[in-house]
Amino acid sequence: MTIQKERVGIIGSGNWGSAVAKIIGENVQKHPETFEYPVRQWVFEEDYKGQPLTKVINESHENPKYLPGIRLPNNVQAEPDLIKTCEDCTMLVFVLPHQFVRGVCDDLQGKVNPSVKAISLIKGLEIKPDQVTLFSQEIGRRLHLTHPVAALSGANIADEVAKERFCESTIGCTSAQAGELFHRLFATPYFRINVIGDPVGVELCGALKNVVAVAAGISDGLGYGDNTKAALIRIGLMEMRKFAKSFFGGVEDVTFFESCGVADLITTCAGGRNRRVAEAFAKTGKPIDVLEKEMLNGQKLQGTLTAMEVHQFLTHHQMTKAFPLFDAVYRVIYEKAPLDTIVRNL
Amino acid sequence: MTIQKERVGIIGSGNWGSAVAKIIGENVQKHPETFEYPVRQWVFEEDYKGQPLTKVINESHENPKYLPGIRLPNNVQAEPDLIKTCEDCTMLVFVLPHQFVRGVCDDLQGKVNPSVKAISLIKGLEIKPDQVTLFSQEIGRRLHLTHPVAALSGANIADEVAKERFCESTIGCTSAQAGELFHRLFATPYFRINVIGDPVGVELCGALKNVVAVAAGISDGLGYGDNTKAALIRIGLMEMRKFAKSFFGGVEDVTFFESCGVADLITTCAGGRNRRVAEAFAKTGKPIDVLEKEMLNGQKLQGTLTAMEVHQFLTHHQMTKAFPLFDAVYRVIYEKAPLDTIVRNL
């Protein structure tokens, strides 16, 4: 009897997707007994200086558009065809902006082996007034997968990971066997992985942290000191935990001690665009959409968006009072409440 | 039957002691049904511009030497006599440098009501190769107190607290009734107090955090990014928890989610002298004692001292390997190990 090796496909090729492709390509070569050599990466085809980006990547072994200066392993093959990328794959890594998830899943319907082991590195949630959708669950449902989809999240700035700076990340996976495979696929001496059994908690942390970062930015903008900021980070972490435990089953306290919890929150509240734009909001009084134009070339800020969605969701469940920090961020950003509301009624 | 009111004494009058005296004096006035109006504060008598410091404080209602520019409430009375300060007190607040604790306790032997409710705001531990001494327990033992001594610790930079900037703190107290009294004594709208049942965990956090701050400073000195620093803070928090649970009973996981745990650690690793000196150590290669002279006017750095004591203690218990970050800090500072040891073998 021969053991079938795992064939890995990566869906997405942005900054984070490219950093992850480097790690996956290297680990696949390190474990030939476990993985097949080639790793296909779906790259949304676009023009790069007059050439197709996939051609540039496959010839230069670098993604000059989204991760310039970082060499990608030879076994990572950029592939413009989504279906072809996933063909025969036994493991799929979803690492793309959340607004593309549904379209990609629709294109993949019936084309993916239902027993594939999938993991989501997608940041963000879809929050409707009456429900919260996790993209990992959305992927599993739309592709009719038999295993629950895992999630990876942590204090991981793509460029620092690509430069092999030491950091940690957390994988939430309900299957011990799949968890071990994902650990082999992602873990390196500089990219430390803890595998835990709580994918929901891992994924929720990755989205809710941005609301807390907005509070931290407002605190910075007001010139409050390290004490106040640390208090807001701590209270924010506790509201993230309360939110997760109030509306989802199986979320564990220890998850918030992991890289996806406390560590990612610290990083996001130290640097990070959400903190930065919120600081400018507090200092200049300019509306967020103006600052998005000025500071993010019109890109939407995730933290304020999530704050509004969370507010609508909590209002629907009549639970805004149970989350005073989330509520304060919403009221400061969208209801012109005084800035120091973020440290009131906590 | 008349209910006896609480008479509060404060032992210590440095920067933190003075900030705390302001809060206590105000809260005592807010709760006349609970506390007697006068609050005596023991001030080590010294000369201030030709006058006794106690006289200056009592006339100006300000401690110009240790907390200039902050008004102290009228009911706070600076008292040069330690015994007189504690006379008839039913509540005692110990807020002095740890090297003075034993001397003060010796002077107070037999002079303090054994049923007094005492709380320690003292930072640091006495770690000998074979045992760790908590100052709260040391105080209780030396004064033969009948109630366990409580502990207060949190992300509290004295000057920011004195300026009434929002922050949090944690009180560890095994008695619910005493805990409620301490809450009434310390809590304000800008100084938020959580009372928990784990005084040992609270006190340990306040000392061990400084070892982690040294690691954070070395990381900064090496130019590592936010990811790495957040990882070191998280791993440090987990080693603090492991140390507390390995060598002390009754320590709870949740304690490390409190202000004394994660929040104080974040503040200490963001600013703070331990981080700053360690950063200079990594950048200049100068020995710590030279940097102490240059940066701290010869004062000893707590974090490196604690790192050595912890190392001796762990060596005695043959458990250095179980605390790779604490061990790495010791080896980098005292054994000339390469700086990047702090991110190896974690």
TrEMBL record, chains A, B:
- Return the broad EC class: oxidoreductase
Sites where the protein binds substrate: 123, 273-274
* Record-listed E.C. numbers: 1.1.1.8
InterPro entries this protein is in? 6-PGluconate_DH-like_C_sf, 6PGD_dom2, G3P_DH_NAD-dep, G3P_DH_NAD-dep_C, G3P_DH_NAD-dep_euk, G3P_DH_NAD-dep_N, NAD(P)-bd_dom_sf
Q: Which domain of life is it from?
A: Eukaryota
CC terms in the record's Gene Ontology section: cytosol; nucleus
Keywords per UniProt: NAD, Oxidoreductase
Positions bound to NAD(+):
12-17, 44, 100, 158, 273, 300, 302
In this protein, which residues make up the domain named Glycerol-3-phosphate dehydrogenase NAD-dependent C-terminal? 198-343
Instruction: Spell out the catalytic residues.
Output: 209 (proton acceptor)
**A molecular function GO annotation:** NAD binding
Tell me which Pfam families the record gives.
NAD_Gly3P_dh_C, NAD_Gly3P_dh_N
Q: Which residues form a coiled coil?
A: none
Any one biological process term the GO annotation gives? glycerol-3-phosphate catabolic process
Name all Glycerol-3-phosphate dehydrogenase NAD-dependent N-terminal domain ranges.
8-177
The Swiss-Prot or TrEMBL record describes its family as follows: Belongs to the NAD-dependent glycerol-3-phosphate dehydrogenase family.
Q: Which NCBIfam families match?
A: glycerol3P_DH (TIGR03376)
Q: What is the name listed in the Swiss-Prot or TrEMBL entry for this protein?
A: Glycerol-3-phosphate dehydrogenase [NAD(+)]
Naturally occurring in which organism (per UniProt): Hesseltinella vesiculosa
